[in-house]
């Protein structure tokens, strides 16, 4: 496809499908070198479609059509029109059976969309528009059909044959071939279709639902990996129980299968009853997977399972509604994660990720609303905005209407829409109707791109014993509370922002929250109140305050906004030490650190030395002192904001000054607190063998943060410490953390550790990914040369997305090296994107997103970046996927 045929699709153009497909019967024959797909569709005119009879149109991609028939009669040349992507039948009967036979070539399908080969097996990925690569079909989510699928294949090489639903027969058919038939009792959109034909090992288990139904669970993995499946099965069972307990949602399936595959574009896919997963989110063993891997597996397994209700039972009318299922399901997996691990630390990590990914996205060329207005390639909109900001929007609804009303809203949503393909409006309507809260203005969050700025100022009146809080909002970063008038542009109607507030007293105690005009009962006894900011500017007066409070704003990050309030350094230190809201304790520390790093970056960029105050070290020392109270929290509080996040706060980014400033502060802390760090490291050691429990993981996180600070000293002692940990660790968390620390240090230990790590793990694909990424993430000046060299290493494979993400995407996220002043990082990545695009446009387009923020850098860097992007953009045969991303970046 070229740019002329790539069309922009608009949300406003939605029309119901002219035909519905009631049932689908597929026969899939795996032959040597080809796959034949016979399909029988029962179609009928959609009673809800437009009155004038439209033709029947089906989608296809890469199909070699062998035969076509309607009601058993082969189609003549005049009966239809066929292009490479559409099959049109002009005057079809109102109800018909359409039979098609096509040949497809999964062995050469490197896009990993549709049916494709990975190693020696065959797998599918149909979301968003992969089903059209398997057979002719009206490929859109508002057409739901019942499926029967029969697979035929060589028994020795493809012994496992799976599809959605329940087994409905299997057998041998002679000459070494066998067949298996599957029937899915649920009507589903074609993006939830899946099949697998491969050689796989399986771990089976069972789950009994709250009403006593038994569900057969099965996790299929590459032969030899059964000892890495237990955690995924356990996560699945916990997720199933959790959804019953928290949302009253029971599993509707007899069989729930998860298949892990090493070649996969994204994380995982919620195909009805037959999830297909990237191996990364299934396989785990103490010595191969880190604590973060274990927790990600929990979350992704839960996410895909939760989709069975939020996505499958109730699905999306069209792809603009993607956040209907993704935002809601991320919110659900976040809540699951919070209940499984520490709620506060879970929230902190999510907000850290939101700021590192979604805020830059919302400020860059790919900014789009949670519900986008248009797209060229839908796969480019599986974004942090749709997923993570979408989850924040759902969370804000919960905050505004309360937990119980939110649950009633979910119940009402399923009561109204089970079995339907619906819109974000339907979801919000259920929440509004169940709660009685008017969410009309709130819906602006779905339609308006950009991160709102929230300005706050406070004033304490000693005489009146009142604290007046003024809040104002705008989408314009440059506006200030002082020119609030300018904010009120007709283009920017205000958001409905829930602002959770607490007031801290001198000793860290929560003060009463009584708001003028409400009567004293309303606020007494509450330590946090959620204010609704619905106008451009509003004031809230808190009464009966005996002394000036330190205000704690946006507790638990109650809205995805950029908050501006001029706390003094002392007030931030007070909040860091005392706020009853753990998120805001962490946040206060992040603010303090950001202030220092940004000021230092400015100093360094004009040749002045950085200034590091002792007060910051004192705050860090207090954190270390109390670290045992909550090691996981202490680890988060000691971790400085990342470079990409900090860069968003700079007008013109100087990446090397920023990098030096951030690492300068780390080194200063290490120099001042070396003993305390070492003490903390030693006292949190575990003698017990590895356990993936939150408590043990928290201790490891804390120790490894201490180790990484000590690494900043580049001392023999620190190197020896890291090397000792690297060699003696009984688990990947500690081994990898030691390697990551050494990888930042130009020393002999680094070379030894990297070599021995590869030597030991070269047969474990997922561990090799870690080896690649730790090198691509290194701050050492020769990192680009190393990455170039690794392209040629047998460990790397441009066809495997995990390898591409590990090496190339990690390099693109290596702020100081990717944004090298000479443009070398830009030219390197652009060239790789061009190469990759010929194999896998989806992954190439994801990689191209690393260029999003190029305009934030200085003139010489901008020149290099635009040169690299222009060159990429002009490549012959560039995919619509990459073209859309690069085109927007250059706009
Ligand atoms: N629905 C999947 C999920 O749970 C994502 C699949 C998207 N795949 C794609 N190629 N766009 O997150
Ligand atoms: Zn999802």
In DSSP terms (H or I, runs of 4 or more residues), the helix count works out at: 27
Uncertain parts: none
Question: Ions, cofactors, ligands: which are bound?
Answer: arginine, zinc ion
How does the major sheet shape up?
8 strands, mixed
Which properties best describe this structure?
globular; 891 residues; five-stranded mixed sheet; binds zinc ion; alpha+beta; 40% helix; binds arginine
Structure description:
- This protein is α+β, with helices and mostly antiparallel strands.
- Helix content is 40%, strand content 21%.
- The chain contains 27 helices and 32 strands.
- A hairpin with a 2-residue loop joins strand 2 and strand 3.
- Helix 13 packs parallel to helix 16, helix 20 packs parallel to helix 22 and helix 24 packs parallel to helix 26.
- The longest helix is centred in the last third of the chain and has 29 residues.
- It is globular, with a radius of gyration of 28 Å.
- The mean pLDDT is 96.
- Bound molecules: arginine and zinc ion (ZN).
- The site of zinc ion has 4 residues, from helix 2 and helix 3.
SSE blueprint:
Layout: E1 9-10, E2 19-31, E3 34-45, E4 56-59, E5 64-70, E6 73-74, E7 80-82, E8 86-89, E9 95-104, E10 114-118, E11 121-125, E12 144-154, E13 160-163, E14 166-172, E15 177-189, E16 195-198, E17 201-208, E18 214-221, H1 230-247, E19 255-261, E20 268-269, E21 274-278, H2 291-307, E22 315-316, H3 322-340, H4 343-363, E23 374-375, H5 384-401, H6 403-417, E24 421-422, H7 424-435, H8 444-447, E25 453-461, E26 466-474, H9 484-487, E27 497-504, E28 514-515, E29 529-533, E30 537-543, E31 550-553, E32 562-564, H10 569-578, H11 582-605, H12 614-625, H13 631-638, H14 643-647, H15 655-683, H16 694-711, H17 716-728, H18 732-742, H19 748-761, H20 765-776, H21 783-791, H22 801-812, H23 815-818, H24 824-837, H25 841-848, H26 859-873, H27 880-890
Parallel strand pairs: 2-12, 18-19, 19-21, 22-24, 25-32
Antiparallel strand pairs: 1-23, 2-3, 3-9, 4-8, 5-6, 5-9, 7-8, 10-11, 12-15, 13-16, 14-15, 17-18, 20-21, 25-26, 26-30, 27-29, 27-31, 28-30
The site of zinc ion has 4 residues, from α2 and α3.
């Amino acid at each position: 496809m070229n740019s002329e045929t790539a069309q922009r699709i608009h949300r406003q153009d939605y029309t119901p499908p002219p035909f519905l497909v009631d049932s689908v019967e597929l026969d899939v024959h795996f032959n040597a070198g080809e796959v034949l797909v016979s399909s029988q569709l029962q179609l009928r005119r959609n009673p809800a479609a437009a009155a004038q009879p439209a033709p029947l149109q089906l989608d296809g991609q890469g199909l070699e059509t062998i035969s076509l028939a309607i009601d058993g009669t082969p189609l003549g040349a005049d009966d239809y029109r066929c292009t490479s992507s559409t099959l049109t039948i002009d005057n079809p009967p109102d109800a018909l059976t359409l039979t098609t036979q096509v040949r497809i070539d999964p062995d050469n399908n490197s896009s990993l969309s549709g049916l494709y080969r990975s190693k020696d097996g065959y797998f599918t990925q149909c979301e968003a528009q992969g089903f059209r690569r398997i057979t002719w079909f009206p490929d859109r989510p508002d057409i739901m059909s019942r499926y029967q699928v029969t697979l035929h294949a060589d028994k020795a090489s493809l012994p496992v044959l799976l599809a959605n639903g329940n087994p409905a027969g299997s057998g041998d058919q002679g000459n070494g071939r066998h067949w298996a038939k599957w029937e899915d009792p649920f009507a589903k959109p074609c993006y939830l279709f899946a099949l697998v034909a491969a050689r796989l090992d399986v771990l089976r288990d069972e789950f009994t639902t709250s009403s006593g139904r038994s569900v057969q669970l099965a996790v299929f993995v590459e032969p030899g990996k059964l000892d890495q499946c237990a955690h995924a099965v356990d996560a699945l069972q916990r997720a199933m129980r959790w959804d019953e307990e928290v949302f009253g949602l029971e599993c509707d399936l007899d069989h729930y299968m998860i298949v892990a595959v090493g070649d996969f574009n994204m994380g995982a896919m919620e195909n009805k009853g037959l999830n297909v997963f990237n191996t990364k989110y299934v396989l785990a063993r103490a010595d191969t997977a880190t604590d973060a891997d274990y927790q990600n597996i929990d979350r992704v397994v839960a996410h895909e399972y939760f989709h069975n209700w939020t996505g499958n039972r109730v699905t999306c009318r069209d792809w603009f509604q993607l956040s209907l299922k993704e935002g809601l399901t991320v919110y659900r997996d976040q809540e699951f994660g919070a209940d499984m691990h520490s709620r506060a630390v879970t929230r902190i990590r999510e907000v850290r990720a939101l700021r590192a990914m979604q805020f830059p996205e919302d400020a860059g060329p790919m900014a789009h609303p949670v519900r986008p207005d248009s797209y060229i390639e839908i796969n480019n909109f599986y974004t942090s905005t749709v997923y993570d900001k979408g989850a924040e929007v759902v969370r804000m609804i919960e905050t505004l209407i309360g937990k119980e009303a939110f649950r009633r809203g979910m119940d009402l949503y399923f009561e109204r829409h089970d079995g339907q393909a619906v819109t974000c409006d339907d979801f919000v309507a259920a929440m509004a109707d169940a709660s009685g809260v008017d969410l009309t203005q709130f819906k602006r969050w779905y339609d308006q791109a950009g991160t709102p700025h929230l300005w706050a100022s406070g004033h304490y009146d000693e005489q009146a014993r009142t604290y007046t809080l003024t809040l104002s909002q705008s989408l314009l970063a440059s506006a200030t509370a002082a020119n609030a008038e300018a904010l009120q542009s007709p283009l920017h109607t205000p958001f409905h922002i829930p602002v959770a507030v607490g007031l801290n007293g001198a000793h860290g105690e929560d003060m009463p929250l009584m708001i003028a005009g409400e009567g004293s009962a309303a606020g007494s006894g509450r330590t946090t109140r959620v204010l609704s900011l619905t106008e451009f500017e509003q004031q809230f007066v808190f009464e009966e305050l005996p002394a000036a409070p330190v205000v704690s704003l946006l507790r638990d990050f109650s809205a995805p906004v950029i908050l501006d309030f001029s706390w003094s350094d002392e007030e931030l230190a007070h909040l860091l030490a005392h706020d009853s809201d753990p998120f805001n304790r962490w946040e206060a520390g992040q603010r303090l650190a950001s202030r220092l790093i940004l000021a230092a970056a400015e100093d360094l960029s004009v040749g002045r030395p950085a200034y590091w105050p002792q007060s910051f070290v004192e705050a860090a020392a207090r954190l270390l002192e109390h670290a045992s109270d909550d090691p996981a929290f202490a680890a988060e509080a000691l971790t400085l904001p990342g470079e990409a996040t900090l860069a968003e706060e700079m007008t013109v980014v100087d990446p090397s000054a920023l990098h030096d400033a951030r690492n300068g502060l780390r080194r200063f802390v290490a120099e001042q607190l070396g003993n305390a760090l070492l003490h903390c490291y030693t006292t949190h050691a575990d003698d017990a063998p590895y356990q993936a429990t939150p408590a043990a993981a928290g201790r490891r996180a804390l120790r490894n943060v201490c180790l990484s600070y000590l690494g900043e000293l580049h001392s023999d002692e620190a190197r020896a410490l890291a090397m000792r940990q690297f060699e003696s660790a009984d688990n990947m968390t500690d081994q990898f953390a030691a390697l990551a620390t050494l990888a930042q240090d130009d020393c002999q230990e680094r070379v030894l550790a990297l070599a021995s790590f590869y030597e030991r793990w070269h047969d474990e694909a997922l561990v090799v990914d870690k080896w690649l990424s730790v090198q691509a993430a290194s701050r050492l000046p020769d990192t680009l040369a190393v990455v170039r060299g690794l392209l040629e290493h047998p460990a790397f494979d441009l066809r495997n997305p995990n390898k591409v993400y590990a090496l190339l995407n990690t390099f693109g996220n290596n702020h100081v090296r990717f944004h090298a002043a000479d443009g070398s990082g830009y030219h390197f990545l652009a060239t790789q994107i061009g190469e990759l695009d010929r194999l896998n446009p989806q992954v190439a387009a994801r990689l191209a997103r690393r260029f999003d923020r190029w305009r934030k850098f200085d003139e010489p860097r901008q020149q290099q970046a635009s040169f690299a992007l222009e060159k990429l953009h002009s490549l012959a045969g560039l995919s619509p996927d990459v073209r859309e991303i690069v085109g927007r970046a250059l706009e």
